[in-house]
Specification:
Helices cover 34% and strands 23% of the residues.
């Protein structure tokens, strides 16, 4: 835990007592703050009280006595309207912050030189965070990973000069972190997302921009116009900007040339790393993730040999194009996290011959946006409530069966793939649907796929598979 010593002796209000909220409250208390916490859920309040956190309805509190108000990132700050606690805080002139802001203040207070890599973007944040942390850990660096992935940021070990932090930051968290100041800040990409919470795309983009604007070095993917404009704006303001691109050769920066990751300096190119043969980093989207990780690791002092070794040993994230097993020429890949068509597209673009397991609780738009990938599909195995609609979209373009259950789909797909003599093929769970018709969540669905694949005679697990 990181004690929030910057609030020692001060009175702090807090709203939101889920797992990260309780962790944040305990960090404040450990640092010497007097905390009053609340939540709209009585069960959450009871759990907090049971671990010694002082609770009380903040409607009745004396807000003039609070030095700060710490808000859970899941609670509306601006849209569709500010939460009632936010209005009370602002009405009393109390600053509204979140756990990432607490972390930044503690790092500045006790070990400002501790390397801090902050990562955001609409897509790819978790993979880039996990990959960056893995490269650092594999090189022997003391590494802490958390934030919007894994551990709540205030549960990480306390800052010290040689301790490296890799922190995934959502837009909600950045919005509550006015002094965010990474050593290397990564902005991967921007597409419309969370507009119910941010109102407009312009506001959403401006929040994401804060992470790189406060960074010592801003690493920005420029393959979309929003990020390209942010890079230009920061560079004009005198910030140190490193551009990355998964598809465009650059004059200066880092870009992907097939499986090669290239550095450009005034138009002169050199290879800094490669992804050939690294199954956990297949696809153009992972080239962008890897480029960002390479640039950040170079910034904090790793050499190219350490980085390449880390890339090659990266096991991938669970349920995100996770290689779980192989039998002869058949690879089994768990992409259960792909809960809509856009999320399924990267996996479908990464393999040339696919036995595709799809379906579940359908999302708006179905799989029509994936039609361009239909020529890659040897056959589709449809499950769950979406099966009839998906079969209608596939029509005569792709052979399919309505398998009904995931277990049946894996069994049938494995049988058909084993008889395919066209070279390497993949049995791919990339459902383009939510899981809730048959499973509690996408993690449970992915685990069911792993178990079904491993039960097939002759399937050997791949190193790093859970």
């Amino acid at each position: 835990m990181i004690p929030a010593a910057s609030f020692a002796g001060k009175r702090v209000s807090l709203f939101g007592l889920g797992g990260s909220g309780i962790a944040t409250a305990r960090a404040l208390i450990e640092g010497g703050a007097d905390v009053l916490a609340w939540d709209d859920n009585p069960d959450s309040v009871a759990k907090a009280a049971a671990v010694g956190i002082s609770t009380g309805d903040l409607r009745a509190a004396d807000w003039a006595g609070f030095s700060a108000f710490v808000l859970s990132p899941g609670v509306p700050l601006t849209h569709p309207k500010p939460h009632w606690t936010v209005e009370l805080a602002r009405g009393s002139g109390v600053e509204v912050i979140g756990d990432i802001e607490l972390f930044c203040r503690e790092r500045t207070l006790s070990a400002a030189e501790a390397p801090f890599i902050g990562i955001t973007g609409t897509n790819g944040k978790s993979t880039t965070t996990a990959l960056t942390a893995h490269i650092l850990q594999a090189s022997g660096r003391d590494t802490q990973m958390g934030g919007n992935i894994g551990r709540a940021v205030m549960t990480l070990d306390p800052p010290r000069p040689d301790r490296h932090y890799v922190v995934e930051c959502s837009s909600y968290q950045i919005d509550l972190a006015p002094s965010i100041n990474p050593t290397a800040g990564i902005l991967l990409n921007l597409t419309p997302d969370h507009l119910d919470r941010h109102g407009t795309m312009q506001h959403y983009a401006s929040i994401k921009e804060r992470l790189v604007a406060g960074s010592e070095t801003a690493i920005i993917g420029i393959d979309d116009s929003w990020c390209a404009q942010i890079a230009e704006r920061l560079e004009r303001a005198g910030r140190h900007v490193i551009r990355i691109s998964k598809r465009l050769p650059l004059t200066d920066g880092y870009f992907a040339d097939g499986s090669n990751l290239m550095e450009a300096v005034h138009g002169r190119y050199s290879r800094v790393a490669f992804l050939e043969g690294i199954g956990s980093l297949r696809g153009q989207h992972n080239a962008q993730n890897a480029l960002a990780a390479v640039a950040a690791c170079l910034k904090v002092g790793l050499d190219l040999g350490e980085i390449q070794s880390g890339l090659e040993s990266f096991p991938g994230l669970a349920h995100r194009m996770e290689q779980v097993g192989r039998k002869d020429h058949v690879l089994f890949v768990n992409d259960s996290k792909a809960t809509n068509a856009d999320a399924a597209a990267p996996a479908l673009s990464s393999f040339s011959r696919i036995y595709w397991i799809a379906g579940g609780l359908p999302k708006e738009g179905g799989i029509e946006p994936l039609r361009g990938f239909f020529p890659r599909l040897a056959k589709a195995y449809l499950i769950g409530e979406a099966a009839p609609a998906f079969s209608a979209t596939l029509g005569e373009a792709v052979p399919y069966e309505i398998s009904g259950t995931l277990a049946a789909a894996v069994e049938h797909a494995a049988h058909d793939a084993a008889r395919d003599d066209g070279g390497e093929v993949v049995v791919l769970l990339s459902p383009a649907c939510a899981s809730f018709d048959q499973f509690k969540n996408f993690e449970v669905r992915g685990e069911a796929f792993r178990q079904a694949a491993s039960a097939i005679d002759g399937v050997k697990p791949i190193g790093g598979a859970r």
